[in-house]
Design goal:
Elements lengths: L4 E9 L3 E4 L1 H6 L1 H12 L11 H5 L10 H6 L12 E4 L6 H15 L9 E7 L9 H8 L4 E4 L6 H15 L5 E8 L16 E10 L5 E9 L7 E7 L5 E7 L3 H24 L8 E4 L6 H9 L10 H4 L6 H11 L8 E7 L4 E8 L4 E2 L19
Parallel strand pairs: 1-14, 4-5, 4-6, 11-12
Antiparallel strand pairs: 1-7, 2-3, 6-7, 8-13, 9-10, 12-13
Helix pairs in contact: 5-6, 8-9
């Protein structure tokens, strides 16, 4: 019988600055006006490099039989593509400050001390230094005594991290593993580029260890995503003072990539993981889909033919927070009582130029860290796939 290993505690941290769409309407009115003009022209191809969002998510090549296109269509008339709010770093905040807060909350929820952690695995997208990652820095902040590794699989990092931690514990190498993920997109997406409209910052942490019998990770199906390489990329630019800086860009071919690959990755990973777990999709009690866009959860439920009430989507509140998305959705679903002990849960993630993955787990008595903010209380969590 497989050793019952899975998530024991879970926490989320967000930075202090809340940025709504009014920020761009007030500070970059010309940028918003150009985006609205593009909509009036039926989202035709444009050369403006700062109109990345309309290049990535466009009606060009619309296919009425494609699940991604069907669910995206209602948002094409909105220049912000359905995004309304995102959390971004303040002047005194960093990936490390968010990671430290999330990690401390996860340890406190698990009633653990730093010395109880045998291994910490960290993903910082992006780290506070170009190299190395934040693992050793965070270990020093927390006062850990054991190993600390950096792991990177872009937006699928949490799934790869959970699979790695569970395998290492089952092998007997470690007993308690702390996983920490963060994203700081606001550093690399210039405010004057519309790509920044669908990106946010945040961090999440979870403790992995032995659970009750028949609980924990049952199966994981992970596939590489070479088809997505080059759709999002960084390039060297200059800031207002002429200093070099890295900026994140979206390729016009991203739209075609989403249409061609989204359904395939969801179907292959989710059905593959369920088959490996010996369950059907109908038996899954809750689905936590990656939600980089406000319509992505609906693409998942449409593709798999599952009840939309079995998932949650907080994208309009958090925007795209990359590798932190699955942890945020799991956290708030559990907080709202949407996931209960012994429920079968399927988590799906997709990362550009890395991996797509699905994990089937039997939810344990997961302890939750304190709320990342007071504005999102239990009675405000949405039922269903949209806010």
């Amino acid at each position: 019988m497989r050793q019952p290993v899975g998530i024991k505690s879970l926490a989320v941290s967000v930075p202090s600055v809340i940025r709504t769409n009014d920020f761009w309407r007030e500070n970059y009115p010309d940028l918003v006006a150009r985006a609205e003009q593009n909509i009036a022209k039926k989202n035709q191809k444009i050369a403006d490099k700062n109109q990345s969002l309309s290049k990535v998510f466009t009606s060009d090549g619309f296919d009425p039989t494609n699940a991604f296109d069907i669910e995206m269509k209602p948002y094409l008339s909105d220049p912000f593509r359905g995004m309304t709010q995102r959390y971004v770093l303040g002047s005194d905040e960093s990936a490390l400050t968010m990671e430290s807060e999330a990690a401390r909350k996860a340890l406190a929820a698990a009633n653990m001390k730093p010395e109880d952690v045998d291994l910490m695995i960290v993903t910082s997208l992006f780290a506070d230094n170009i190299v190395p990652g934040n693992a050793a820095f965070l270990a020093g902040e927390l006062g850990l005594k054991g190993a600390a590794w950096n792991l990177e699989s872009t937006c699928s990092s949490a799934s790869v991290m959970l699979q790695t931690a569970a395998a290492l514990i089952r092998s007997g190498e470690y007993r308690n593993v702390l996983g920490v993920v963060s994203v700081t997109y606001s550093r690399y997406a210039p405010e004057e580029d519309t790509l920044s409209w669908f990106l946010g910052d945040g961090a999440g942490a979870f403790v992995v260890g032995e659970l009750k019998e028949n609980q924990g990770v049952i199966a994981t199906k992970i596939l590489h995503t070479h088809e997505t390489c080059g759709t999002f990329y960084t390039e060297l630019d200059k800031d207002a003072l002429g200093n070099p800086k890295l900026v994140m860009r979206g390729s016009p071919r991203a739209s075609k990539m989403f249409r061609q690959t989204t359904e395939k990755f969801i179907r292959d990973c989710c059905k593959g993981a369920a088959e490996m777990a010996g369950v059907t999709l109908d038996e899954i009690d809750f689905f936590a889909f990656n939600t980089p866009t406000v319509w992505y959860a609906n693409v998942g439920t449409r593709t798999l033919g599952v009840d939309p009430s079995k998932t949650i989507n907080l994208c309009s509140r958090y925007a795209n927070i990359g590798p932190v998305l699955p942890l945020t959705n799991l956290y708030h679903a559990a907080e709202a009582g949407r996931i209960c002990e012994n429920d079968l849960v399927l988590v799906y993630t997709i990362g550009s130029a890395s991996n797509a993955g699905a994990t089937v787990m039997r939810w344990g008595d997961v302890a939750l860290g304190s709320s990342p903010h007071s504005s999102l209380t239990k009675d405000k969590i949405p039922v269903g796939a949209t806010m």
